[in-house]
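=== RUN LOG ===
request id: a7f3
mode: sequence -> structure
chains: 1
length: 456
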Amino acid sequence: MTEETVKDRWVLGLTSLGFFMAMMDAMIVTTASTAIRTEFQISVGLLQWALNAYNITIAAVLLVGVALGERWGRRKIYNWGIFIFTIGSVLCALANNIEWLIATRIVEGLGASVMTPMSMAILTNTVPANQRGRALGIWSGIGGLALIIGPSLGGLIVAQLTWQWIFWLNVPVGIMAIGLSQYHLPESHGQNEPIKLIDNLLLIMAMAGLVWALSASTSVTGTSQLGLVAVIGLISVGCGIGFIYRQSVDPLPMLPLTLFHNPTFTGGNLATACLYGSMYGVVFFLPQYLQVSQRATALTAGLALLPWTGTLVVVAPFAGRAVDRFGDRWVATLGLVLQGVGYLSIALLVHQSYLWLVLPLMIAGVGLSMAGPALQKAVLGAVPRVMIGKAAGVYNVFRLLGGALGTTVAVMIFYQCQGTTFSSGFQATMLGTAVLSFLGVIWSWHLAAERVVNLD
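=== RESULT ===
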């Protein structure tokens, strides 16, 4: 084994670890959600913020984190992200009410906001172009382990200890990751640009306000409350318009709108939002459905997700090779179709025993495993190498904002269709997530028919 091979393996392993940690913290909460809801005596609508506060923070702050990494060094900012994430995990474990938990999940999100894009940027910058699809497939597969281990581990921890231990677990892993990354990861820089704090504030207000307004609209009871929701919704839309305007006139924008002139870049990001919006809506409700309607424990609910999540680590590396061979469009489109078919099948079989759900879960997992690496490569391959950091940031904004909106829309559907049973609301939610996945096919078809390679 050559020295270069050993170096590449360290880079792949340590960058994948950062993605794994960030994904794990979203997934491990899912099977612990019923225990959290019971201890704090809260509604499903309020519970969603234990997940959404984390995802929205990452999406809203991510581009600032990317700018810091491009300016001061990707490895340096990557390690700072892991440090803040670890501190946030300690604070989450000490939370004694839902308000504290939501606030500390925001701290975790601040750290995770640079872990995923910096890990992707470091890996993409280091690996040769002809091996990038395979490397991103492995990176996605290792990150996908969080989908396998997270729910099952969360269920085991809740069953044997308490839900707080899902956060204590991050502390030793974070300390180890910082030490190894400092020694084994190469430092790299991108474009040195000023930090746009006003732009980032507008982006935060636009994202958080929109998701909050959609979420609150399901529980308003009076005219004054409805008016408040409408006002906040309009403010968030105004902030979004202001953000876009500032990017269009700024000579050095935080988010270069010219990138969206490329249909592959635009279609890849919109398809990503649909892919993960659909997935996050399912991962929020499926463990609750298994515990409430199928009478599973937290542990068995986590294990019951394995036919869905277990396909990720098996399929993702092969999907990366398939992208290199057949191109982004076909692999991404087929993946989105399979995910939609899987969720639609679950909706039709929701009143059957769990065994009927195994095959649909596997089909959905294969679809996610195929579409994820294909869309990553399409987005990053559509920009010059010097813009990879920003492209990674934009990709993850769409992934996480799509996830937050997908969770919120799923909750809205659930409340509108719940009726007298949890299963009725869950069935409608699964139909909604299937439609969202099929919607992504429209955008995946905008990807380039041939493979797209970064221009230096």
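=== NOTES ===
The mean pLDDT is 80.
The radius of gyration is 21 Å.
=== END ===
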